[in-house]
């Protein structure tokens, strides 16, 4: 006789945190115009892909954290700071 499988007894997969390298790749992929500079809208899109509840707020906070020259954009030189900031927020791979 076959054994019954009950869905509630199956272990759920454990979510895994994104690391800074994976997050950096997401931000680079969201550079829609390919100019090597991330605008606030592009950063917001990246946070949306990461699963942020309020991606516009996260983009604003990220710009305040990582934009060293306060120009309202993130250059490739500032991207590693942005990736470390986002990695520290604990986004999970789903």
Kindly describe this structure:
By secondary structure, the protein is mainly alpha-helical. Helix content is 45%, strand content 9%. The protein contains 4 helices and 4 strands, in the order E-H-E-H-H-E-H-E. The strands form 2 sheets. A two-stranded antiparallel sheet has the order 1-4. The chain is elongated. The protein starts with 15 loop residues before the first strand and ends with a strand. The model has no long low-confidence stretch (mean pLDDT 89).
In summary, what is this structure?
This protein has 94 residues and is mostly helical. Helices cover 45% and strands 9% of the residues.
Rg, Å, rounded: 17 Å
Say how many strands there are: 4
The biggest sheet, with number of strands, parallel, antiparallel or mixed sense and barrel status, is:
2 strands, antiparallel
Coarse morphology? elongated
- Largest sheet, order of strands side by side? 1-4
Structural class, please? Answer: mainly alpha
Mean of pLDDT: 89
Low-pLDDT segments: none
Q: Cα distance, first to last residue? A: 36 Å
Estimated share of beta-strand residues: 5-15%
């Amino acid at each position: 006789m076959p054994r019954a499988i009950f869905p509630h007894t199956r272990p759920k997969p454990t979510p895994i945190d994104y690391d800074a390298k994976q997050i950096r790749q997401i931000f680079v992929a969201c550079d829609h115009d390919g100019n090597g500079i991330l605008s606030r809208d592009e950063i917001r899109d990246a946070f949306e892909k990461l699963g942020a509840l309020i991606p516009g707020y996260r983009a604003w906070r990220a710009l305040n954290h990582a934009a060293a020259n306060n120009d309202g954009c993130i250059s490739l030189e500032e991207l590693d700071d942005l990736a470390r900031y986002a990695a520290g927020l604990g986004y999970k791979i789903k």
